[in-house]
């Protein structure tokens, strides 16, 4: 009897310490734990371990502890890591169609964006990624981008004329700023603060979380809440790992991922609202930055101007007319 109790105890200890896990899933990401992506990854870890009854041991590695985003896709293919959530730009070479998310003013609002991601267009994009040997699971939010400048408030498209805008490497973003007569300049994200401070660039586009955490609001005179573009992530998994899982555990992964996605989107929304409030407080206190919210009429003027670039990306090698039109038509 004593032996039986001891062996039961040993089994319980093994189960809680992760020793009983049949599979180990390493989830590598590049941001800190207190970001929406970081918090959602931790939620996914707890939820999948719970749903799988401890059969899958999830280990989250934040802040580029394992890999930077530019190396993680190769690591996934080799199954050196089982899961990651890179930004869309990291898929540019393998699935250029993900540049759909760079198109300015293609999403009416957050609800429309999520209906696109969770509907036919999102499914098609994910299947394109999966066809390249990496299993695409779900889209996670960073947030909508806003416009900031030192030259003048960006309220109408003509206000951008001649201004030097920092952009990340993207043909879409280059075309977007050319369409309003601005000068797009590619620059590493790490150099944006000093670039704005020293006048190397006049303006930028970023989600509120980037503006606040990198203190761009301290080196910009004007901020326009434009929600003109979107930044997000695609959560992906090693195909070798996915195929090694029995069907019941694959279902557990899917369920945990869907629940984590719902959480992540809410975290991102809450954080953007909280940090916008902090920027507004800074503006009131210091008077160093003016904040504007574009009216519907102003947004429409921008939309008309920049949507002229959509046909440039109709070819299948770029984004594809079908995907662009389906996105606009998504109800």
Strand content: 15-25%
Radius of gyration from CA coordinates: 22 Å
- Write the CATH fold name: D-Maltodextrin-Binding Protein, domain 2
Low-confidence runs of at least 5 consecutive residues: 1-16
Helix and strand composition category: alpha/beta
Averaged pLDDT, please? 93
Helix percentage range = 40-55%
Based on CA inertia axes, which overall geometry fits? globular
The count of helical stretches stands at: 12
CATH class: Alpha Beta
Written as H for each helix and E for each strand, in order along the chain, the element string is HEHEHEHHEEHEHEHEHHEHH
What would you note in describing this structure?
The protein has a single domain, classed as Bacterial extracellular solute-binding protein, family 7 (D-Maltodextrin-Binding Protein, domain 2, 3-Layer(aba) Sandwich), CATH 3.40.190.170. The protein is an alpha/beta fold. α2 runs antiparallel to α10. The N and C termini lie far apart (64 Å). It is built from twelve helices and nine strands.
Task: Identify the notable features of this structure and list them briefly.
D-Maltodextrin-Binding Protein, domain 2, 9 strands, alpha/beta, 19% strand, 331 residues
């Amino acid at each position: 009897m004593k032996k039986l109790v001891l062996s039961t105890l040993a089994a319980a200890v093994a189960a809680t310490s992760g020793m009983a896990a049949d599979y180990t899933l390493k989830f590598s990401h590049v941001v800190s734990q207190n970001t929406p992506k970081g918090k959602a990854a931790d939620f996914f870890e707890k939820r999948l371990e719970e749903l799988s009854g401890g059969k899958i041991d999830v280990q989250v590695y934040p802040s580029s502890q394992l890999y930077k985003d530019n190396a993680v896709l190769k690591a996934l293919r080799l199954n050196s890591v089982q899961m990651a959530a890179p930004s869309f730009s990291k898929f540019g070479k393998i699935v250029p169609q993900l540049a759909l998310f760079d198109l300015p003013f293609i999403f009416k609002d957050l609800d429309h964006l999520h209906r696109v991601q969770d509907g036919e267009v999102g499914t098609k994009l994910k299947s394109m990624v999966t066809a390249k040997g990496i299993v695409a699971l779900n889209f996670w939010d960073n947030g909508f981008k806003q416009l900031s400048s030192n030259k003048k408030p960006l309220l109408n498209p003509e206000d951008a004329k001649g201004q030097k805008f920092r952009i990340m490497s993207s043909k879409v973003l280059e075309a977007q700023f050319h369409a309003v007569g601005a000068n797009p300049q590619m620059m590493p994200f790490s150099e944006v603060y000093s670039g704005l401070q020293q006048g190397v660039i006049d303006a930028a586009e970023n989600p509120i979380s980037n503006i606040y955490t990198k203190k761009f609001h301290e080196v910009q005179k004007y901020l326009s809440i434009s929600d003109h573009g979107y930044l997000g992530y695609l959560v992906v998994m090693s195909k070798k790992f996915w195929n090694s899982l029995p069907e019941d555990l694959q279902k557990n992964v899917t369920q945990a991922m869907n629940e984590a996605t719902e959480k992540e989107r809410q975290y991102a929304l809450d954080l953007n609202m909280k940090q916008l409030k902090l920027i507004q407080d800074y503006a009131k206190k210091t008077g160093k930055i003016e904040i504007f919210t574009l009216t519907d009429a102003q947004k429409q003027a921008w939309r008309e101007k920049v949507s002229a670039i959509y046909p440039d990306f109709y070819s299948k090698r770029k984004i594809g007319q079908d995907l662009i039109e389906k996105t606009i038509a998504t109800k």
